[in-house]
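Students often ask what a 'structure token' actually looks like in practice. Rather than answer in the abstract, let us consider NB-ARC domain-containing protein, a protein of 875 residues. Its sequence is given first.
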Amino acid sequence: MLDASHASLPQPKSDNNTYHLGEIGDHNIVIACLPSGRYGLTSAAVVSQQMLSTFPAIEIGLMVGIGGGVPSSAADIRLGDIVVSKPTGLFPGVVQYDYGKAMGDGSFHRTGSLNSPPDRLLTAISDLEARHRLGNNKIAVHLQNAAKLHASIRESFTYPGVDEDILFDASYIHEDGKPTCSSCDRSHIVPRSPRESTTPSIHYGLIASANQVMKNARTRDKLGEELGILCFEMEAAGLMNHFPCLVLRGICDYSDSHKNKQWQDYAAATAAAYARELLEFSLPTTLLPSASDAVRIRSKIPISKSVFFGRKKELQQLQQLFDVEMHTRQAAVIWGPSGFGKTQLALEYLTSRDMDYEVILWVDSSSCTMVVEYFEQISLQLKSDTKSIKPGAELVVEWLERENRSWIIVFDGVESMGDDEKFDDLDIRDYFPASKHGHLLLVTTSSDLHLRLAYPGIEIQGVDDQTGASILLKCAGITCQNTSNNTVAMAISRKLRGMPLAIEQAGSYLSYGMSSMTDYKKHFETRFRETTLKTPMRKYVGSYEKGCTLWTTFDMLYNTLQQKSPDSARLLQLITFLGRGRIPFGIITGDREGSAQPAAEQFQPDHLANEQLSLVAPWLMELRCDTIQLAMAVRQLEVSGFVKLHRGQGDTLIESLGLHDLARSFLQSAVPQEDKLGMIASSFLLNGQQLYDGQHMPEESIIRTHMGRLTVVSEQFEEHIPNSMLQPPDGRFLPLCGRVAPLFARICRYRGKLDIAAQFWAIAIQHRALSRESLPNLEDLMESAEIDSRLGDLQGAIRKYSTVVSVCESDGLEDDRVYIRAVGCLRESRENRQRSEEHSRRVAVATSAPKSMPYTAIDEGEAREENWHSSDESA
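Now compare that with the structural description of the same chain:
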């Protein structure tokens, strides 16, 4: 029925429809079909909503298809006829006959109401009806032209013939299992007067809609008589309140048990022919008034799927920023990691201030293509005296720049990790109207976009514990709001660091009833963390899409990052193992804490360690030598939303960076096993070098400042790096880790982990023995010896104290405090060893003696010896 077909256009990933584009007369046409095999009110509603979202400039809606007729004395409906929805006295053109409530007397009371077709369409059908009465009916011509143009479908869409149009008595039921009516008793056929022409008749009135097929002739007649229904179908009621349209149905059966598919193609063709004639003759293209005329445009915005929790402070900030006279230009940026509810906040603001704006534009800014296409669609809604060859974005921006117009544009996903290769060439400012009125709201993962644009920024962090608990309990379906449940829910929210998406997933997981909240909290780290975050959201639970999980979100961002910037991806892998909390940026650049000098000027580097680092992370050494390349890699990290950069208050210098614990869990599982050990060993070296130069141990207060992060680094080193990689013949990580091992030994000592501290000292001492540093650090040897002594390894302690004494004596350092302390400790250790050996000897003698002896066999001397032994044991 189209005059011409058009090429397909890009559409959002969230739109599952398939469209055929074309034109009839001066109208641009968008056609979408229901999914094969899926019918009913819901399916139609979904298709229409996605269509309106992708094509917001749509002005006219037609629901074209087939239906079951209701023949009666009042309406001589035949197969192939067309029924057009038109308001009657009681109903607006469509009635959902199965929606209501059963009354006590057995009657059925219908409730609710649907919208009427738009007045413009009702006027158009009145005009077309008048044309047809005057004999100007072109439907048969359209059918013939279609058959000529498309010979392959000619047979299917041709009139089946008068003899095939059979109406049986309502009391006569079709035989089960028979595909056609060839075996039906023809004595039950209802006699009807023949028509003069096979041209379809057109009936205007009420169409009945429901989720079920009408196949009962008696029910058909009962409802037809009661409500004045002309035909039955299964989709229209799902559209009328959300997609006001005109419903056109070609009659393919009589809504009885004899229904079959013989007439369906032809009936569809007759309805389509009516649609063409309506568009061609009775619905001229919208007149384009002057551009000064006001147009109220409401962009299709995402619909919040859940109750808005918390964020009162952020919402108040946003309202205050925009709570000014509309003629004053205002802008703001909402920023934060993925999954924290940035878009939800923007939606809540628009919901609360909807009536304040004449124009609301919601721009999916995740790709250059989406932005350009969006403004092209919006430009079609604008009113212009003449057709323009300007790009759609330019037309929209110029239109918004005019005075006395209240508008807001929301750019969602600015500088996100989209897969559009042209995105870096997009300057979002090109889409900002150059006016002193209107509002701009940008939503992004970038932490410095607001600084670059000089706009106020609203940071979205994790929700507070109470808000997190409310989200969790709601998604879990827990209605018992007692103190115990609330306390446990708050604890779970804290474990998830207040990330709304993660909390909703946890609630969705709990709603399955496979674990109690208490057990979930107790075993979250060991059993539930990864399982929960991989579990898809249950239907109708939470505010995010059903297929959306934190794991899939992270996976998508990570894969895109790997494609766009391999350096950024490798840097992210390394950051994953650099510990928790704020990670000093100097660890990445190689600058030591507390120094503005480059690492090379602060202390003589450990060439062996740096050579080894070059083997496992050559890319990091290259990035350190190329400041611009490093800056670009860090920028991509920030844009990805994985990493949050913390800058100085006085300038934009990056001081530290942070990674959410849940992102760390995902990334550690995503790093290939063969790369993981190198990353862990590199993290050990880099964290150590940032505080320790291999000679001078930092003060205790400095170490304790970084204790949390360094403890994580130490524990992952202990867990994953096997001893074989630190000892000959392999020993690949000994040069990498040996120099900074004393720092981690000190940390373990502070934590009371003396056995682990001793292991780190062993690594450090062996490293020095094998490296070009011939002289040991005496203070380090003293500390290592002290730990050996406290662990009971007196032989090891004596050996190390002796080494310190020997070195001091050979260097003439007898007056040095280290020498004096070493001599005292050596003497004490030897005495302790002597006592220990004597004690062991006596224990051995006692255990080797007979278990019982006659009392008279013990003389006085032996008794004294036994008493001395007992006293020694007590001491």
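One point worth highlighting: The mean pLDDT is 80. Ask yourself how you might have guessed this from the sequence alone, and why that guess would often be unreliable.
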